[in-house]
Structures are given as C-alpha cells and as structure tokens.
Design goal:
Two copies of one chain form a homodimer. The first copy, chain A, is built from ten helices and no strands.
Amino acid sequence: MAPAQARDVRLRADAARNRQAIIDAARQLYGRRGLDAPLDEIARLARVGNATLYRHFPSRCALAAAVFADTLQRVIDAAGRALADPDPWHGFAAHVRFLCELQSTGRGVADLLITRVSGAPELEELRESAYASLVAIAARAQASGALRADFVPEDLALLLMANAGLVSRTAEAAPQAWRRFTDLALDGLRSAAATGAAPPPGRAAVQRAMRARGDDLGYS
Amino acid sequence: MAPAQARDVRLRADAARNRQAIIDAARQLYGRRGLDAPLDEIARLARVGNATLYRHFPSRCALAAAVFADTLQRVIDAAGRALADPDPWHGFAAHVRFLCELQSTGRGVADLLITRVSGAPELEELRESAYASLVAIAARAQASGALRADFVPEDLALLLMANAGLVSRTAEAAPQAWRRFTDLALDGLRSAAATGAAPPPGRAAVQRAMRARGDDLGYS
C-alpha cells in the first residue's frame, strides 16, 4: 500500500472507532439519564470532541436512530414470535411483557417506545411496522375471546407511557416492580375482567402525545 | 393608630401578600413543570425577589409543604369518604380514581403522591395518615371478596407511579387518558380477574423509590 492509501485506511478506521464509541456512550447515557441526555456529555463519555460527534451525527435524531434502530427491529422480531404463538392470548401477553421488560432496561428506551423521533424517518418506519404487528397480535387475541372486546391498540400506548413512568421511578429501588405492574395490568385486559371503561383516546391524540414528548426531549 | 403602628400593619399585609403570591406561583409552576420547577422562576412569576422568597420559604421543602399540605388533607378526607362507603369495592375504586384524577391536575401533585419530601415532616405525617387510611380501605375491600386477595398497598404506589408517567405524557394531547387507564387497572385488581402475578416490591423498597425520587427532584 502507498503511504497515502495507508493513511486513508487508518483515518477510516479511526472514524469507525469514534462512531462506535459515540453510539456506545449515547446508549449508556440514554439509559441512565433518558433521551434528553446532553450531547456534550455523550461526547465527553465517548472521549471525542463535540465537532467529531456533530460530524458523525448532525442531529439528536440521527444519533437516536443509530442507537435505537436495532432495538425497534428487536420489537418487530418479538412481534413475529407473538403472532406465531399457537395461543393468541399467550402471544399477546408475552409481547406486552417483552415491551415492558425492554422499557425496564433503560430510561431512554422506556421513552423511545412512546416518543416520536420526527427527524429520524427510519425509526418512525420501524415504529409503524411494530404498530401494525401489534394491531394484528391484539386482533388475534380478541378474536380468540381472551382479550377484552373493548381493547384498542391505544390502550397499549397508555400502558407503555405508564410503565415508562414506573420504571423511571423504581429503576434503583425496586427494579422488578414493572413485572408486578404488568401482570396486574394484563389481568385487567382479559375479557373475564372487563366491566366497562372510560373511552380510550383516539389514535391521533396518542400520536400528538408522542410528538409532544419528542418535542419536550429535543427531537422535533 | 400611630404612624409607626400603621407602618407595621402595612408591612405585615405586604408580607402576607407576598407569601400568598409565592404559593400561588409555585402551585402554578409545579403544575406545569413538576416539583423541580426552579425557585427563581417561581420568584419571578410571583413578582418577588429571590431573597423575599427565601425569607418566607428557606428551603424547597418548606415551600412544597405550604403548597401541598391542604392537598394531602384532601386525600385524607377522601379516604374517610371511601371508608364510609357502604360498598367496600365501590369505596376502594372511588378512592383510586380520586387519587389518579388528582394526579391529572398537575405534574407537581402527580409526583407529590409518590415522592418523599424528607425536609417537610408535616407533609410526611399527612402522608402516613393517608397511607394508613388506604391500608384500611384495601383491607375492607379484600374482606368483602371483591379486591384480589394478593393485592398489597404497594400495588397502589406502583399504580400511582405509573399514572404519574402517563399524565405527564398525555396532559395536553389526551388529558382524559388517565380515566381509561385507571378503569382498566381497576378491572385488573378485582378478584374475578386475578390469575396470579409476580411478587410485589416490599414497603421498604417502595419507600426507597419515593425517597430517591425526592432526591432527584431536589427535596433531600
């Protein structure tokens, strides 16, 4: 290799290393602090300058996409497993538990599931796909008679918003609290339990709430 | 009145007016921003200087006590009504709805119910009293057979932590979402719905979580 080529290879290797260090640092800080973790703290933890972070990820949304795309892909994979479960209720309950457990792994991912990242269309496409699977999982569980007839997919968005609040308040002191909460909530979603309930918010209202949360956290 | 006396009366009236203006401003900002609303913004909204605020309320805890003591008293009063309800389940459900609705009225009060304010013993005494009533309300509903046998008072703390997360994420876009969520959660607490659940966190763990939240929000 000519010296200039060798230098290019080294520079590209450095860039790839920096990029990965930034993603790892972001994942760690999002987990501890939430999606609004300051970019300069992420750069510091990754041991890169702010300019380097900005060169790799020109916006908060771009960084969130790099950190969380595979997380949403895992959600979609889990949804596929839920749909393949021979017992529709069991598949539904397992998927709800999967989502709530995922939220318990970090404050960032807890919010990611119910926060619109407007500037990261690749994340929002994955979210749409995850949502479509969820609708199918719920429809199957309802058709089987096990999931209450008045359940709507927005109910799961409310549950995840609630669980995000719970995990952020219990992460250190009672890290298993989400399991108890999720089990009790699932019991409330069974047909056998249903006694009627206030009307759910519409999908548009839930989407507005998710967008507002994105705005709050700096992802508008 | 001698001029000096008249001046004293005027000064005392000014002080009382300032104190009330600070409390009103704090209530408003806690509602919008949460319990960690900055004191200097509260002073600005109340149109007083930081020194005046500090003279009336030497700590965040003292200010929170002035704002929220009557709120906790209302919780205790509501608990008394729940205990007087001839239908134990109805009393229990009404009290849970009362608490969740109270949380929906502002971010500060949403957190107050599940945040220890260590430096305000008067609030913590009221909280103890509210907790004792809750234990009695739940025991009565359990004895009637309507509330699931494995319910423990800590479950309600988890529900309120969850609802705090929900109301903070839906306040603008779906302000009635808490009603739907609370109804579904209550269905999950009925004996008829119970299918077994993960063990609840102990009371000590929930108290640690409430203290940690207080620390996070600046009330240690």
